[in-house]
Amino acid sequence: MDPDRTYDPPLADAAPVLTACEEIGTALAEAGCDLVVYSSEAQFVEDRVVTGYVAHGDLPPGSVQVRPPYGEAETDFPMLAERPEVFDVRYEAGENWETSFYRSLREVDGVVLLGGGRSTLITGMVCLAFGVPMATVPRFGGAGRTVWDTMNRTPHHATADEVSAMGAEWGAGSALRLVRLLLVQGERRDEQQREESRSQRRAAWRSGFGIAFGLLLLCVGLAMIPLAYALKASAFVNLTSLVVGALATGTSGAITRNAFDRGEHWARTAALGMSAGAVSFLLFVSAQLAASPEILTGEGARRLLFFVLTVGFVSGFTFDALYGRLKQADPQAPPSVPLPTSPPPGGANGG
Predict the structure, then answer these.
(1) Residue 158 · residue 189 · CB < 8 Å
(2) What pTM was computed for the model?
(3) Cα-flanking dihedrals φ and ψ of residue 294, to 5°?
(4) Mean pLDDT (whole number) for 122-142
(5) d(CA 80, CA 87)
């Protein structure tokens, strides 16, 4: 809030702005928030915010985290000499405050914006893009007003009513209201992150269950081999082992392939794999029956089981990809058929 600079929109009077900064610092201290500040130069708002913050009274050690660039001299914040335990000075690599400032945006739980120029505008856009809770005071002009205008048009953790409340005239209790709006956004973001974490755990559980189910079906399909050899050969035993084996391995193959795609929607893929296993079984066995009509009643069906299990698994593993290709095909496109060419009348020389 440098009076020697030109801001767009212009800044409001300096006196109420500086008082508001101290009120915001006091409200943050009352809410139990820590501060991250960067410079105590007079043109920045941190100096006044820290003044109101430290004036609150008892504060935990290290409540005010100062992140100046290495070698920066402007760290003479109010009460730093009298209450050094409240301050935690962490020098950052680099020669300007922008380096440490933008790096710290990944770590903070909220940002308060008022006044400012291009850096403040960039900060607001970063917060909107990455979902950092933010409270801005448009009443004082500067880039804070531009950020507030953008918040009205961009989805964020703040509701439309909360954004509107930030634009109210500054008066008694405005700082407490501003901090309360900031904390509500933080709670909303934390709940959203918890819900996303729960969704990820549920998705991981479903994926793990699907993979375990696919392995179980693969074991069921393979178990048809010793079962067929253990029982007396008959058409019923042979046909049952072939059908169960094809369906089980086809479903297992589809679930195995789905595991490569994060394991989501495995039940739908399992149904497609079972269908593929059934179709492959019918095609393969019908071809064998055409060549050997008595194969299902003899010992040959047991040897046929090895091929059916393999064909079923491969069919289930590749059916989903084939189904996707079929869906992408244009059924209205006419087939491209080359027309036969004929030599001109009279031979190659035209007569």
Answers:
(1) no
(2) 0.67
(3) -95, 15
(4) 92
(5) 7
